[in-house]
Specification:
Length: about 475
């Protein structure tokens, strides 16, 4: 496979999905590359890099399916030279093809899904090839598999917007090592996901590319970096509360989160959502109260008005494993977290899922979410309200983040994570993105992100005036 000499090759798997396509675009905008783009449908991969029927005449014959990349530019302190992006057909059920895709890459960014079925397949292949690994999804099951295979947990640093160290324990209970954490993306500004998407995967489990300790080529993988949960949720859903906690609070007692809107499910994201209902990712109707999980302490709310959401919406409460880790890490006494559905169809579909097999249930979510969005302007919003104390007085602050869809937010975090890895800002080992990315730097990057239509921290809870079609 070809690559520009001296430049780190970045591989993106699932490159033409909702997240993968946005990741590719952002990497190119940041001047990163050369890129190796992979998916099951080679024609779609070629179209993404301009070598399909609409691409430049003769490009495929001259470059073996690649086109010339950007001019020489500085990428986070490393030289990215003009090179050729590559289009590669990869079926994740073909271990040899996946190994060849990862070979020679500096970092592999996995945007393929569903993550609940891929698990650690791509991560093991990347490590066996001697590459670093970034996953826009990758939940506790992936983390546990990689840890069991011998990949050590990396030390973590949680940093706020002013670069000060904050709560010092990760999910494994390890303290901060006092080293600087990763902040901006490739060029110091970065472009800043709702799980994974992209190419489908019908098998289960790992493809068995050796252990995470030593690769099939005999390379020592002790220096490899693995960053999981580098997307919207998990990922940004922990980074933004970390940033908010650093905005003048001496102590935070309570977090209330409302996340959702009018968004669409991709097939892979829908499969992951269905899997999350039964695999321990989240506890439905649970809250965090008195520094512990309280099952079935809440209930769904229909037709309610929530601050910063337009009109009346529906809220479904749950407590994710990520939210629980966040509460333990930052010492919150109470956390209430809800998915928000701006419409009735998707919520009604969720109520029927327990009677359906996983594939049928996922198809129902895809169908109803598209119907829900028909004729409306899609949006995805995260609203975090914190209550605590500063200088002996009660304080309430709210962070509002809004984008056209959740997949752009996933791509934003994935690119920031890849940039941090390329710049050597993440220590070797196994990490979650929220444990190694600087929450304040991520917030600043999103402020400049054209996909983000609103991002601010406001005192109190009073909503801004919101208007959406169909709402009087």
């Amino acid at each position: 496979m070809r690559a520009g000499r001296g430049a780190p090759v970045i591989a993106v798997l699932g490159c033409y999905g909702a997240v993968g396509g946005a990741v590719v675009r952002r990497l190119r905008e940041a001047g990163a590359g050369p890129l190796r783009l992979g998916g099951r449908d080679l024609d779609r991969v070629r179209a993404l890099i301009g070598t399909g029927s609409g691409g430049p005449a003769g490009a495929e014959a001259a470059t073996g399916g690649a086109v010339t990349g950007a001019a020489v530019t500085d990428v986070g302190g490393m030289e990215a030279r003009a090179g050729a992006d590559e289009a590669v057909a990869v079926d994740l059920r073909d271990a040899a093809a996946l190994a060849a895709f990862c070979e020679g890459c500096h970092v592999v960014v996995n945007c393929a899904g569903p993550s609940s079925r891929i698990l650690d397949t791509v991560a093991r292949a990347a490590l066996a090839a001697g590459a670093h690994y970034v996953d826009v999804a990758g939940d506790a099951a992936v983390r546990d598999r990689l840890a069991a295979a011998g990949l050590p947990a990396g030390s973590t640093v949680h940093r706020g917007s002013r670069g000060q160290g904050s709560a010092g324990h990760d999910s494994a209970g390890q303290g901060s090592d006092g080293q600087g954490s990763a902040g901006h993306g490739f060029d110091g500004h970065g472009s800043a996901g709702h799980g994974s998407d992209g190419q489908g995967f019908d098998g289960h489990g790992s493809a068995g590319h050796g252990s995470a300790g030593r690769s099939r080529a005999g390379r020592d993988d002790a220096g490899r970096v693995v960053v999981l949960a580098a997307g919207m949720m998990p990922g940004l859903s922990a980074l933004l509360p970390r940033h908010l906690a650093g905005q003048g609070f001496d102590r935070v007692d309570r977090l209330t989160a409302h996340v959702g809107g009018v968004d669409r499910f991709t097939p892979a994201a829908a499969l992951d959502y269905v899997a999350s209902l039964s695999d321990g990712y989240a506890t439905p109707l649970a809250v965090w109260r008195g520094h512990q999980v309280i099952p079935r302490a809440s209930r769904p709310r229909r037709g309610v008005e929530l601050p910063h959401f337009p009109g009346r919406v529906n809220a479904y409460p749950y407590l994710s494993a990520e939210a629980e880790r966040l509460a333990r890490s930052l010492g919150f006494a109470e956390v209430e977290w809800s998915s928000v559905f701006d419409g009735e169809l998707t919520l009604a579909a969720l109520a029927r899922l327990h009677d359906l097999d996983a594939d049928t249930a996922a198809g129902e979510l895809v169908r109803t979410s598209r119907l829900e969005a028909f004729g409306r302007t899609p949006y995805f919003q995260m609203v975090f309200r914190m209550e605590g104390e500063a200088a002996g007085r009660p304080v309430t602050r709210t962070l509002v983040a809004r984008a056209a869809d959740s997949y752009e937010l996933s791509a934003a975090v994935a690119v920031l994570a890849a940039g941090a890895v390329l710049r050597g800002l993440v220590r070797p080992g196994l990490h979650d993105a929220a444990d190694v990315l600087d929450a304040g730097a991520v917030f600043q990057a999103l402020l400049d992100d054209p996909a983000v239509t609103r991002l601010e921290v406001v005192d109190g809870v009073a909503p801004a005036v919101e208007v959406e079609e169909g709402v009087l």
